[in-house]
Automatic annotation (TrEMBL):
Lineage of origin: Bacteria, Thermotogati, Deinococcota, Deinococci, Thermales
Protein name, entry field: GTPase Era
Keywords: Cell membrane, Cytoplasm, GTP-binding, Membrane, Nucleotide-binding, Ribosome biogenesis, RNA-binding, rRNA-binding
Annotated region described as G1, given as residue ranges: 14-21
Function: An essential GTPase that binds both GDP and GTP, with rapid nucleotide exchange. Plays a role in 16S rRNA processing and 30S ribosomal subunit biogenesis and possibly also in cell cycle regulation and energy metabolism.
Species of origin: Thermus arciformis
Primary localization: cytoplasm
Keyword Ligase: no
BP GO annotations: ribosomal small subunit assembly
Membrane topology according to the record: Peripheral membrane protein
Complex and partners: Monomer.
Length: 298
């Protein structure tokens, strides 16, 4: 007799910077989503695939909900609603270090239509760093009393393992969406590299060029000497930003390139040659064509 399998989709939602990507990475045990101390690092919908025994979860990491500011903003909100329309459970992440803001209220409002249809887990995150977690949790729970509250730290292995077990148990009977041995994300290798590069660039540039940065990998080639050659582009919107990204004597871009290369080498376990170039793509965030080219629209 064939054994039953269980599988489904889980959306991870929440305003920017609450720890969605950190939680997803630690649920999966690998680095899939980019993490940054600045909001809006996650622009694309991103899947992570978790298979344990006869149970599988396909995670959807959504960009934070926020008011559409430009073409990119509109795209992000659409992604959130798409991500929510067909899931088996929702994980709503909030930051216990602070009480709810209007952005959290927006998320709660977006989740209201799902009440009674899909289990909603309200995850109060950053428990390790919160001064008044109980009070904060109560205030978040009041925004959506139907949600099931819990507190944790996305950095705490045991607490994340418990959440993982509970989510796996929520999956309905059904065949797997991905083969058991499928890679843990459906990003291409180039997209994955581009996100790591963007993460390293954002870390070092957020004072100067917050959201004007986009990245793209043009070429990946395995060299005969075992070195992985990667040609990547870093786009900015204006020539003045290009100068900032390059930095005095090329120092900034060198720093970004080195950090990216080190991360890639650690994750891949092989030597990487990163060929990095900064280009100006005027007003790419307002240009639908550019957004498509950079992978923000299909
Ligand atoms: P996202 O925008 O919701 O995806 O948030 P990220 O996962 O990028 O995390 C934003 C910041 O919060 C990063 O600096 C994380 O290291 C940090 N962070 C995430 N989870 C925790 C946690 O449980 N405790 C603490 N202290 N920091 C966390
Ligand atoms: Mg994120």
């Amino acid at each position: 007799m064939e054994e039953k399998t269980y599988s489904g989709f889980v959306a991870i939602v929440g305003k920017p910077n609450v720890g969605k990507s950190t939680l997803l990475n630690n649920l999966l045990g690998v680095k899939v989503a980019p993490i940054s101390p600045r909001p809006q690092t996650t622009r694309k919908r991103l899947r992570g695939i978790l298979t344990e025994g006869r149970r599988q979860i396909v995670f959807v990491d959504t960009p934070g909900l926020h008011k559409p500011m430009d073409a990119l903003g509109e795209f992000m909100d659409q992604e959130v609603y798409e991500a929510l329309s067909d899931v088996n459970a929702v994980v709503w992440v909030v930051d216990l270090r602070h009480p709810p803001t209007p952005e959290d209220e927006l998320v709660a409002k977006a989740l209201k239509p799902l009440v009674g249809k899909v289990p909603i887990l309200l995850v109060g995150n950053k428990l390790d760093a919160a001064k008044y977690p109980e009070e904060a949790m109560k205030a978040y729970h009041e925004l959506l009393p139907e949600a099931e509250p819990r507190m944790l730290s996305a950095l705490d292995e045991r607490q994340v393992a418990q959440l993982k077990a509970d989510l796996l148990a929520l999956m309905p009977e059904g065949s797997f969406f991905y083969p058991e041995d499928y890679a843990k994300s459906d990003q291409t290798f180039g997209e994955w590299v581009a996100e790591i590069l963007r993460e390293e660039a954002m870390k070092r540039l957020w004072h100067e060029v917050p959201y004007a940065i986009a990245t793209k990998v043009e070429e990946v080639a395995e060299r005969e000497n075992g070195v992985l050659y990667i040609k990547a582009l870093l786009y900015v919107e204006r020539p003045s930003q290009k100068a900032i990204v390059i930095g005095e004597g090329g120092r900034k871009i060198k720093e970004i390139g080195q950090a990216t290369r080190k991360q890639l080498e650690a994750l891949l376990g092989k030597k990487v040659y990163l060929d990095l170039e900064v280009k100006v793509y005027p007003d790419w965030r307002k240009d639908p064509e550019a957004l498509r080219e950079l992978g923000y629209r299909s």
